[in-house]
Amino acid sequence: MHARVAAVTTTVLLGAAATLLTPAPDARAAARPAPVVVAHRGASAQAPENTLAAVDKAAEMDVAWVENDVQRTKDGELVVIHDDTLRRTTNAAKIFPGRSPWKVKDFTAAEIAQLDAGSWFGPAFAGERVPTLKQFVNRLDRHRQKLLLEIKNPQFYPGIEQQIIKVLGNEGWLDRWHVAHRLVVQSFSADSIRTVHSLRPAVRTGFLGTPAVADLPAYSRFADLINPSHTTVTGAYVSAVHAHWGPHGVPLGVFVWTVDDAVSARRAAGYGVDGIITNKPDVVRAALPGA
Ligand code: G3P
Ligand code: CA
User: Fold this and answer.
1) Which one, 31, 73, 235, 244, has least CB within 10 Å?
2) Mean pLDDT computed over 49-61
3) How far does residue 17's CA lie from ligand 2's centre (Å)?
4) pTM of the predicted model, to two decimals?
5) What gap in Å lies between CA 101 and CA 54, rounded to an integer?
6) How far is the CA of 257 from the centre of ligand 1 (A)?
7) Does residue 277 have its Cβ closer than 6 Å to ligand 1?
């Protein structure tokens, strides 16, 4: 055979073999592990958000990961609540009528402990309380669950990162096992998670948002996860995040929020996300075999 013809033939054969050996995109998607399911504010479609009842409900549903929101009372207690006021999820307006706008930071822990954080959701949950962070992590431990802890509104609570680390340490959540497998701290504030990373470099962190791809190298110095709204991402974006390595020497991960329907869950899984944060873990699980 003429040498040039032989070379071309070899190239064609090698190309065909490479094509056969490279999985098609669908096969790659099928080979990926299913995303981790995270119960957003606990199982918050089934029980009042951010309460111990919502943690218990997630455990009943066999959901290992629970997300919560941490803020601080007037006298320095860390409590688990989403809004910066007590109005929507407690009866604060009824118990303390003269204290509008019922900011979390303007109430003591003893005052907040009196509030009913369950009746707004349904009479079966009357008497449910706003948990402290300590109560919340202890309940997670009882169920052997994992925590995606959001530092909420850190701009109102100077030093809250140090305080969170202290409570987690006191409650046994900074041992090797918890840090490696059971804890991620996230925030919409890059400064806040940068602070957590510098205080405790072993703790995994997540940035809530969709940074520009050009900015990912900067985030990868202190964040292990990039956690965007599911409405803001594409497969290309998720791949771009995965192409960067985080502070613990593994590729950055992506947990999207808040995905409550089957179509969105399948779309996010098709993009290759690593986690799905949802109010409805049952719906996401039903949509994604293996999740
Ligand atoms: O975990 C992500 C998600 O909780 C962020 O939004 O407002 O529900 O805290 P938000
Ligand atoms: Ca949250």
Assistant:
1) 31
2) 98
3) 48
4) 0.91
5) 26
6) 7
7) yes
